[in-house]
Design goal:
Blueprint lengths: L1 H6 L5 H12 L5 H25 L3 H10 L8 H29 L9 H16 L6 H51 L3 H19 L3 H18 L2 H9 L2 E2 L5 E2 L6 H39 L4 H10 L6 H52 L8 E4 L5 E4 L1 H24 L3 H14 L5 H9 L17 H16 L1 H7 L3 H16 L5 H13 L4 H20 L5 E2 L2 E2 L3 H18 L3 H12 L3 E4 L2 E4 L9 H16 L6 E6 L2 E9 L13 E3 H46 L6
């Protein structure tokens, strides 16, 4: 009773357990109550754990376990149930992951060690989630992993068996493919191929342990492949032919085997249809091939006859005659095309030869300095079109032929330097009134390359200015007249002249300093010093004018319009005086600079303004002036010529004193080319007159000889005595 009294203080479930334990020694029948109570508690804990875990994801459950919030500390039964549920959830997750790895190919069951995979994952989970090795949770996890291992081993076994059979099937199928290739190479008959197949079936059965039924399906697959190609005879033998085994036993055809009969008949129909199509395609291809050969003109009557004998009833006699006529027509067209091609090639070659002749003639004219007088060319190009080459196009071609084709060969042959080649090219071109494009670009790009600040004592000179200035100095000595025509801008001429004077007369050795002196002299601010320079130059010019009869001469010929020259020389000399040259030296230097920009024609200084004139222009212009003066009744000495506007190839005859043009006519306005052509025509006419006069003189002499001979013979006939 004391025990019951002690237990009477507990009114909850735990108290009842204590009470029951106390009473166990008193009433053994209470054991059953305790066991039932314990089982009920475990079931309740398990259901509660499952309910708790069912509402959580795997990640949430694991996070709660790590945080210690998954199970209450005062309920060990529920904690164990939760651990068991968590182990189940973890095992199912790992099993799903392993299945996914197998499906994706990440885990190759054919070569993997399943026990090692399971053990590795189990140990990793035990360590990561902290399951005690001897705990019921660890035992539960191990039981679940063992189930997963059993499933994987079963899957692995089935996969390896399937792989082994697949390899055997592939190897067996390859033996049949090899037999097909061998039969094609050796020309086996259908019966030989069928016998070889039966022999191979027996060998494959022993080697790969494949049943005959499966190999029969392989034979049908091979037959289907041949049916796709239209090999009807082979397919028919494999399907309908009697099968003879290596031991002599005979089997019915595959078409009579129940399980294969339907597929066999389908394959046979496919082979027959494709064979018919192949025959039709072959006949069509042959017909098309004949038509193509006829269109190309390559079909002969003998070849067509032989083909018709081998393939009767495919084309009619009318069709055959049409093909032969078509082939003959194509042959005629081919001959015409060949003739046209030959003619086109001949025309092209003739055009090439003509252009070479043109180039050679232009080079001869360049050498003689008469390219301006050339009458031009009219010829047919490679397409038979008439082309005319004259005027500016002719001069451009002469220039290009010499610079691109001839000059490089001359330079290489004589080992010229770049400067020597340039001088030679300029000499040849200027003699013909032509420009050197690269030299002109270099000369005109010089001062133009100065920036807005001009020239300073510290900045390097632009490379274009240095190159242009050095070329200017070279040409100033070798060809001053070309230099005047090549430089298009007066400011550029003045800058180069000032730089050159600074070095030559002032002793400035450095090009940069010379450019600085020239820039300041030309573009510096005006001052009293400038006014003094103007006066000193004017006095020097007056002194020279009074001390010499004519200090403006071209060779031995004085000019009458000295005022034009004086104005230009004074302007140039004033700039040089600003450089620091004495007035007299500045005037002499200015005269050297200015005179090449004029040409003395008929006693008058003609400003060229950059116009290029060839050799012989002066004499040709004087002859034209004399002809015009006679026609209008004026003294030839009163006339000269002048360029027309900016057209550097057009001239007009003017009065020297006023510069006004004379009455316009076809003779008073002319181009450089016309001037030279007219002069050459006059020379040819003069030579013709001289030749005619010579012929007449010779004819008169011959007549006199004949008369003398006749007189002598007459004296002989009448006994006139000895000669």
């Amino acid at each position: 009773m004391d025990a019951f009294e002690r237990a009477g203080g507990f009114d909850d479930s735990q108290g009842l357990m204590h009470l029951a334990n106390s009473l166990r020694s008193v009433r053994p029948s209470l054991d059953r109550f305790l066991q039932q109570r314990e089982q009920q508690q475990q079931e309740d804990a398990t259901n509660a754990a499952q309910s708790t875990l069912a509402g959580m994801t795997f990640e949430e459950a694991m996070a709660a376990r790590r945080a210690g919030t998954l199970a209450p500390d005062d309920d060990p039964i529920r904690s164990i149930a939760l651990e068991h549920g968590l182990a189940y959830k973890l095992a199912r997750r790992r099993e799903d992951e392993l299945k996914a790895r197998v499906s994706s190919g990440e885990l190759d069951l054919l070569s993997s060690d399943v026990d090692e995979v399971i053990a590795k994952q189990f140990n990793a989970d035990m360590e990561e989630f902290g399951f005690a090795p001897e705990s019921s949770s660890a035992r539960r996890l191990a039981e679940l992993y063992e189930g997963t291992r059993t499933k994987l081993l079963d899957t692995q076994s089935r996969a390896r068996s399937a792989e082994k059979q697949s390899l055997a099937v592939d190897a067996s199928a390859e033996t049949f493919n090899e037999l097909l290739e061998k039969s094609t190479a050796n020309g086996w008959s259908p019966q030989q191929l069928s016998a070889a197949f039966q022999q191979q079936i027996s060998e494959n059965e022993a080697l790969f342990r494949l049943p005959k039924q499966m190999q029969n399906e392989m034979v049908l697959q091979a037959a289907d492949n041949m049916a796709a190609r239209g090999d009807f005879e082979l397919v028919n033998e494999l399907i309908n032919g009697e099968r003879v085994l290596p031991n002599g036993n005979r089997l019915p055809p595959l078409s009579q085997v129940g399980r294969h009969s339907s597929a066999a008949q389908s394959i046979l129909s496919k082979a027959q249809a494709n064979a018919s199509k192949n025959l039709s395609d072959m006949q069509f291809d042959a017909t098309v091939s004949l038509a193509d050969a006829a269109r190309r003109g390559e079909l002969s009557e003998d070849a067509l006859g032989a083909w018709r004998e081998a393939n009767p009833h495919i084309i009619s006699d009318t069709h055959a005659r049409s093909l032969i006529l078509q082939s003959h027509a194509a042959q005629d067209r081919a001959r015409e095309q060949l003739l046209r091609a030959q003619q086109s090639w001949d025309d092209e070659q003739q055009s090439v030869r003509k252009e070479r002749e043109i180039d050679a003639e232009l080079l001869d004219a360049l050498s003689a300095g008469t390219v301006q007088a050339h009458h031009g060319f009219t010829y047919s190009d490679a397409k038979g079109k008439q082309k005319t080459l004259d005027g500016t196009k002719l001069l451009d071609r002469a220039q290009a032929v010499y610079l691109k084709n001839v000059s490089p060969r001359i330079a290489k042959q004589h080992g010229e330097t770049k400067e020597q080649t340039l001088v030679r090219e300029i000499t040849v071109l200027s003699r013909n009134g032509l420009e050197h494009p690269s030299a002109n670009r270099v000369l005109n790009a010089g001062p133009a390359s100065l920036n807005a600040r001009g020239v300073t004592g510290s900045d390097d000179l632009p490379p274009n200015l240095v190159e242009g200035y050095r070329m200017y100095n070279q040409l100033r000595t070798l060809n001053p007249q070309y230099l005047q025509g090549a430089i298009k801008d007066q400011r550029t001429r003045d800058f180069y002249a000032s730089m050159s004077a600074a070095q030559e007369y002032l002793g400035v050795e450095d090009e940069q300093q010379a450019a600085l002196v020239a820039y300041n002299a030309l573009y510096g601010e005006s001052s009293v010093v400038d006014d003094l320079a103007v006066k000193e130059v004017a006095n020097a010019v007056d002194s020279l004018r009074t001390s010499k009869e004519s200090w403006f001469t071209f060779g031995d010929a004085p000019v009458r319009n000295t005022g034009v020259l004086e104005a230009r020389i004074k302007a140039q000399a004033t700039t040089l005086r600003r450089l620091g040259l004495p007035a007299e030296e500045a005037v002499e230097r200015a005269r050297e600079i200015v005179e090449p920009s004029f040409l003395e024609i008929n006693g008058w200084a003609v400003p060229l303004g950059g116009t290029r004139v060839p050799e012989g222009f002066k004499q040709s212009a004087a002859e034209r002036i004399e002809s015009v003066a006679g026609s209008i009744g004026v003294d030839p000495e009163d006339l000269t010529v002048s360029p027309v506007g900016n057209n550097r190839n057009l001239w007009t005859i003017v009065y020297g004193a006023t510069g006004l043009p004379v009455r316009q006519s076809s003779e008073t306005i002319f181009t450089t080319e016309q001037l030279f052509r007219d002069r050459l025509a006059a020379q040819e006419a003069a030579r013709g007159v001289a030749i005619n006069e010579k012929v007449e003189t010779l004819n008169d002499a011959n007549e006199r000889k004949k008369e003398t001979a006749a007189a002598i013979l007459k004296r002989k006939d009448f006994g006139g005595g000895a000669l």
